[in-house]
Design goal:
4 copies of one chain form a homotetramer. Chain A has 242 residues and is an alpha/beta fold. Chain A contains 7 helices and 10 strands. Chain A has a domain at 2-111 and 178-216: Rossmann fold (3-Layer(aba) Sandwich). A 9-stranded mixed β-sheet of chain A has the order 2-1-3-4-9-8-7-5-6. Chains A, B, C, D: Pfam families: ThuA (PF06283).
C-alpha cells in the first residue's frame, strides 16, 4: 500500500510552538508512525511544485492523508479536481482536523463543512460509538486528550455513512469526530483531533486511529463501473405507439 | 408553501414530440398538478434573465423542482452557487430525471452522478422499498410505466440517506430511483422518471410522488446553526504547561 | 390522529418525589401537553387489564408513547408481541428515557439496548445535530436541562436511521439522545430525557420534541406489502435443463 | 480465523435433486471453498446435539455462516439466544438465502423479514451498487445466475447499514440482495442467492462474495463496552434544590 501524507506545512515555518512540536512537520510525524506498519509512505506539501500532487504521484497513491488549515485558499483548483477524480476512482482519503475546511473535503461533501471552534486548552474525550468498526480496532472505550482545540456542533456535513467517534468537550460542546463517507469508488475518513499547537499526533491511540483509518480506506479492487449508453441485456418487447 | 418549478425548456422548442407532450412545457405540466394541492406555484426557465433564479425569487422559494437535460452547461456557475446556498439554508430541492447531471445536483453530491442509459421504449417498474416514507403515501406496491428511458446502475451518488424506490427495467437493469439526502438545513429528493419524449408527468402516481416529495422537502423551522469562534458554556480548568 | 400514552405508573405510587412531580402520573403530564395540539389522546398503564393495551385500543392507535422503568419484566410477552405487530403494521412508537430497556424496544432493535447511567443531578445539554429534521422544528441549537440522570455511550442500539440529538453530560459522557428507526411500516423515535425524579416533561422544549416526534411517527398511508408466493409480472423464458 | 458453517441439512436427505447438487451437504460445499483461503472451517447441522452449537463451539467461532429453510422452527430458542449473545459480543454472522426467515436473523432484525418468492427457474442478475465495499472485491459490474428462485420486494428488514447488491429478476421484481448490519459488537451480512435445487454455491463469483463476506464480518478487537452504573469522569457541580 502506498500512502501519501499531505501537509500545508506553514504553521511549522512561522509558529515556534508548532516548529517545536513537529520538527519534521506534521507530515513528517504522521509518516513516521505510519511507516511502522510496513506501509510505503511518502509526503507532499503545499509549497512543492503542484503542491507535490502531480499526476504521477496521485496515480500511484492508494490512500491520501490531508492536513491543512490557514492556506486552504492557496491550493489550486485544478489540483483539487485531480484529487477529487482520484478519490472517485478509488483512492482513499483521510482528512484530519482543520482539513474539514479544505477545498477537497468541501467539494466531496457538497456542504460548507462549517463548525464551532475555540482554542482554550480544553479537555476532549472521544467516545467510541461504533465498536464494530475496524477503525476502532485496538482502542479502549474512549480516547482522552488533555488539551485540544474545541470543535462543536452543528458540524455542517452530510449524514455520515458511519459515525465512529463522538467528542465530549470540557466547555460544553459535542462533535461528530470520526465519520466515514463513500464517494465514487473511494472511501473517506474524517478524524477531528490534531491542532498544530498540541502534540496530538504523538499520542499512540490517535496514531492507532489514523493507521486503522488508512487501512480501512484502501482501494477495493472491484470492477470500475461502465457509464453511458448501454445495450440491453434482455430482449425489449415491441410496444404500440400511443 | 411557495414552490418554484424550474425547467430548461429547450426540448419543447425543438422536438415536436416533446412540444406535443408538453404544450405548456414540462414546467407548465408540473406546475399544473402541484397547484391542485393549494400550493403557491411559480415557474422559471433557463432562457429567462438569470435563468429566472434571481435573489428575490430564490429567497421566497420553499421548494425548488428542477428539470434539465441538454443544456446543463449553460446554467451559470454563480447562479448554481446561489441555489446551493439556498439549499444549505433550508430550501427543499426536488431533482427530476436527467437533472441527475445538473450542476446543482453534482455540486451537492460531490460525485459524477453518472449512470447507464438507453432510449428503447422499455418498461419500468418502480418498487416501493420504504413503505414508511411520506413520499410513498397513497401509492401501491409499485408504479408501472409502459415506456421510459432506462437508467441503470451503477449510479455514482453518495449513499442515499433514504432509498424509497428501486426500478426494474425490461432490458435487464435496476436503478435507485427515489433517493433522499440532507445538505445543510435543506432536504433533497431525487426522482428518476420523466424522459421528455414520454407523457410521464401526466401519470397520476408519478404526480403523487412529486407532490409528496415537495411536501417532504419543505423547510424545517429549526434554529440556524451558529458557526465560528464560540465562547465556552462551561468553565474550563487551568492546566499545567507541559 | 389517535395517540396513546402508556406509562408503567409505579414510581408515582411509591416515591413521594415522583408523586409530587407528576400528580396525574407521567402519562397524565404527557397527555396534557399533547392535547394542546388537537390530537386525540388516551392513556394506559401497566396495572390495567392487559396493561390497557387491548386489541381494540391498539387497533385504533396511530402513535404509541412508551414510558417504563422498574417493571419492564411485568409487561406480558403476548402483549409485547401485539404491540410489535402493530408497529410493523404502521403504528408509530415514541420510546422515552428508561423505555430503552423495555421489552418492546429491545424486541424491535435486536440488541441489548444497554448503556451507562448515573443519578447525580447533573447538567445535560442536547445538541441538535440534524437541523433539517421535522423533530427539530421550533428548537434552538440545543436544549439545556439543569439536572437529569446521565445516560452514556456505548448505547447498544443498531445504527440509527437518523441521529437528531447528541447529549453532553457534566460528568464527561456523551449520548445519542434522539434516534429514529423504521421497522416494517412503522416509525420509531427514541428520546432520552425524562427521569422520574425531575420535572423534565414540563419543559416546553422537551414537550415540543415529543409533539414533533408524535407527528413524525404517524402512519403513512401506503400500500401494505403483499408477501409470499407471487405470480410473475413478466414472461419467464424456458431454459434448458443442465 | 475460525469459521463455522451451519446448515439445516434436511433437503439433502429427502430431495434427490438437492442430494445430487450437494453430496456433502450445502455446508460441505461452502466449507470446501472457504478452506481454500487458509481459513479454519468447521461445520455443524441441525440434527447434531445442540444443533452443533455448543457453548464451546460458539465461543471459538469468529464468523458463523447460516443456511436454513424448512426447519427454522426446530432450532431451539435457547440456542438462538446463545447465538444472538455471541453476535452481540462480536461474532460475525453471514446469513444465506432462506436464512432470512431463521429465528436468529429475525431476532437480530426485529421485523418479520418476509418477502415475495417464486420457484420458476428464472434469471437473476445481481448488480453491484456499492463498488467501494470490500464484499465487492474481485467482482464485475454484476453477477448473473441463469436459474434461481425469485425473492422480491418488499423485503421486510430494517434499513440496511450498507446495500451492496440489488437483484433484477426475469419475472419483474427487484430485491435488496446484499445487506450489512451491525448489532452490538457483531457484523452481519445477508446474501440472497442459494436455493437448494440449483448449484449456486459452486459459482465462483458467489463463492467470492461469501469469502469476502466472511472476511468483512470478522470480529473487531476493540474494547468491550462497559454498561451500568458509572462513576463520573469529571466533577459535577452542586445545584440548588428547586
Amino acid at each position: 500500500m502506498n500512502v501519501l501524507v499531505w501537509n500545508e506545512n506553514r504553521h511549522e515555518k512561522t509558529n515556534p510552538v508548532v516548529a517545536e512540536n513537529y520538527p519534521k512537520g506534521i507530515h513528517g510525524a504522521i509518516a513516521e508512525f505510519l511507516q511502522e506498519d510496513e506501509i510505503n509512505v511518502k509526503t507532499a506539501t503545499l509549497d512543492e511544485a503542484d503542491h507535490g500532487l502531480t499526476d504521477e504521484v496521485l496515480a500511484e497513491t492508494d490512500v491520501l492523508v490531508w492536513w491543512g488549515h490557514k492556506a486552504h485558499g492557496e491550493v489550486r483548483d485544478e489540483i483539487v479536481e485531480k484529487v477529487q477524480k482520484r478519490v472517485l476512482e478509488g483512492m482513499g482519503l483521510v482528512v484530519l482536523h482543520s482539513g474539514h475546511f479544505s477545498k477537497i473535503f468541501k467539494k466531496l461533501m457538497g456542504t460548507t463543512c462549517d463548525l464551532k471552534w475555540r482554542e482554550a486548552d480544553e479537555k476532549e474525550r472521544l467516545w467510541v460509538v461504533d465498536p464494530t468498526h475496524p477503525i476502532a480496532e485496538g482502542l479502549g472505550q474512549y480516547i482522552e486528550l488533555e488539551k485540544e482545540e474545541m470543535y462543536g456542533e452543528h458540524f455542517d456535513i452530510p449524514t455520515p455513512d458511519e459515525l465512529i467517534f463522538i467528542s465530549w468537550f470540557e466547555g460544553g460542546e459535542v462533535f461528530r469526530s470520526g465519520c466515514t463517507y463513500k464517494r465514487g469508488k473511494g472511501k473517506i475518513f474524517y478524524f477531528r483531533p490534531g491542532h498544530e499547537t498540541y502534540k496530538t499526533y504523538y499520542n499512540p491511540e490517535i496514531q492507532r486511529v489514523i493507521k486503522n483509518g488508512v487501512n480501512w480506506a484502501k482501494p477495493t479492487n472491484s470492477a470500475t463501473p461502465v457509464y453511458g449508453n448501454a445495450q440491453p441485456l434482455e430482449k425489449i418487447s415491441e410496444k404500440a405507439n400511443v
